[in-house]
Specification:
It is a single chain. With about 180 residues, this protein is mainly beta. It has a single domain, classed as Fimbrial-type adhesion domain (Immunoglobulin-like). It has 1 helix and 10 strands. The strands form 3 sheets. A 5-stranded antiparallel beta sheet has the order 2-8-6-5-9, with no helix packed on it. The protein has a 3-stranded antiparallel beta sheet with strand order 7-4-10, with no helix packed on it. A hairpin with a 2-residue loop joins β5 and β6. The radius of gyration is 36 Å and the shape is elongated.
């Protein structure tokens, strides 16, 4: 018997492959993978730049009095807080405040310009009655609930008693507040 011609054998093979007979094997494989996300409680400081510096919180202003006064003055930043802080209810918000520019021996001081001998000691507290002091560099919890979560106010109050012996002029200090959550 004569050998088939190459073009006839090729045509027969093409027909077999097209019909699925003798063609290449196919396989289908499937697998799954999980997709998830976790949302944790936290806070957002509106206007916070990449530097992490939120700017000014506000001002603790003890007012104006006479050189000879020995009065006690109180002040708070809560009413004039300049930053907006929003937190998830139940977030573990912590606040610490450094000693300021003129701290000495663990005491915060207002100072008259560059005159380090013209200082007035003051204290910071977490409550209006100043029964809960804010120690230098110590972290304290700031309550966050459903009622204040969109506008959290930092509980910063201050008290000072004038010594009645300081020269007149503006006494100032600058503090740094650190928030963690």
């Amino acid at each position: 018997m004569p050998a088939p011609r190459p073009s006839t054998a090729f045509a027969a093979l093409a027909v077999l492959v097209a019909c699925g007979i003798g063609g290449s094997a196919q396989a289908e494989t499937t697998a799954q993978f999980d997709v998830s996300a976790t949302i944790t409680a936290g806070c957002l400081v509106d206007g916070l730049g990449a530097s992490g510096n939120a700017g000014r919180i506000g001002e603790l202003d003890f007012g104006v009095d006479s050189t000879f006064s020995t009065a006690t003055h109180t002040a708070t930043t809560t009413g004039g807080q300049a930053i907006r802080l929003r937190c998830t209810p139940g977030a573990n918000l912590m606040m610490s405040i450094d000693g300021g520019s003129h701290a000495a021996v663990g005491v915060r001081n207002l100072q008259l310009g560059a005159n380090s001998s013209a200082r007035i000691a003051y204290s910071l507290c977490r409550d209006i009655g100043c029964t809960q002091p804010i120690a230098i560099g110590t972290a304290y919890a700031v309550p966050v609930s459903g009622t204040n979560s969109e506008d959290v106010r930092l509980p910063i109050y201050g008290s000072l008693t004038l010594p009645g012996t300081r020269p007149p002029g503006p006494y100032t200090d600058t503090l740094t507040v650190t928030l963690t959550w």
